[in-house]
Amino acid sequence: MVDANQVAELRRFIEQLKSNPSILHDPSLIFFKEYLRSLGAQVPKIEQTERDYEERAETKPSFSPKHDDDDIMESDVELDNSDVVEPDNEPPQPMGDPTSEVTDENRDEAQLEKSKAMEAISDGKFDEGIEYLTKAVMLNPTSAILYATRATVFLKVKKPNAAIRDANVALQFNPDSAKGYKSRGMARAMLGQWEDAAADLHVASKLDYDEEIGTMLKKVEPNAKRIEEHRRKYQRLRKEKELQRAERERRQQQEAQEREAQAALNDGQVISIHSTSELEAKTKAAKKASRLLILYFTATWCGPCRYMSPLYSNLATQHPRVVFLKVDIDEANDVAASWNISSVPTFCFIRDGKEVDKVVGADKGSLEQKIAQHSSSK
């Protein structure tokens, strides 16, 4: 069974929402608004005069960032929280219906209730003052000054969330309400929302500066600046980590490509080439691995080639870091034609995809000398 008192409270809250839908945009009710949207309800936005409070509350990152997977270590921000209070989580205060018609009689009655409120407040009877101001708000629900005034009284009784709700409504009706910005800034300072508090108080000081705003800014700005410095430090460290991660991934990718290339080069063996595409693949692999490549053109009917082939295979075992390729000009005549081979045996030396030297004929001494020369050079 649902508790009857809870049902009654819920019914009263719904009635308040009907009379003033702007209550839904209070930051403390974001969870309820999201629940309504999850059921398919459409929650209209209410324009904010300086910024959309809802979007700030839902999307603005906290000043104390979480560590990422690389554990960026951040020192805690040292803030002066001596004046911060526990947030008030009471049901939203009654708001007037802005769509209702306000007569001159209503305005006069609202002014009378406000006067009673001021008298009660001067006697230190803040709760009584709030009651009078609430009556005034209900009589004249489009008066920005009434909401802003009630917000200042909520500050006196340490109810910053209630003050913010009233200040938000005051600023909806009067975007230039210095009192609205001032009370909201002071309420945010009570909650430790230092950056938002500083922003509101700066706007208030431009609209109508007073000593109380200046005094509050002196308390708020040091914390706001520390938070901003902390955020910049974190962003700088995060950027450094991202650059380090990108460089690490680049090196890993390069090493993987080099390993793949080396695996295709058959260290210490002579690789037979049967097509232009095979030659291109081996040339690219040798280039990636920064290897010297030797291209040996031969033919089965060539006597000098039969003499050089065993020597060529032996040299391959002696120089495992050199890529030894062999092309039969009759089998792969397209390869021979692309290299303009007119006689065999011919040995072409290739570095970084370009021919750097050549040996034509069965000249064992020249072949060994050039292999030694080019395999040691970079």
Automatic annotation (TrEMBL):
This is TPR repeat-containing thioredoxin TDX. Residues 70-89 have a biased composition (Acidic residues). Keywords: Disulfide bond, Electron transport, Redox-active center, Repeat, TPR repeat, Transport. Residues 250-376 form the Thioredoxin domain. Transmembrane segments: none annotated. GO terms for biological process: response to stress. GO terms for cellular component: histone deacetylase complex. It comes from Arabidopsis suecica. InterPro entries: Hip_N, Thioredoxin_CS, Thioredoxin_domain, TPR_rpt. One of its GO terms (molecular function) is protein dimerization activity. Residues 47-69, 238-261 have a biased composition (Basic and acidic residues). Pfam families: HipN, Thioredoxin. Residues 47-109, 238-263 are annotated as: Disordered. Belongs to the thioredoxin family.
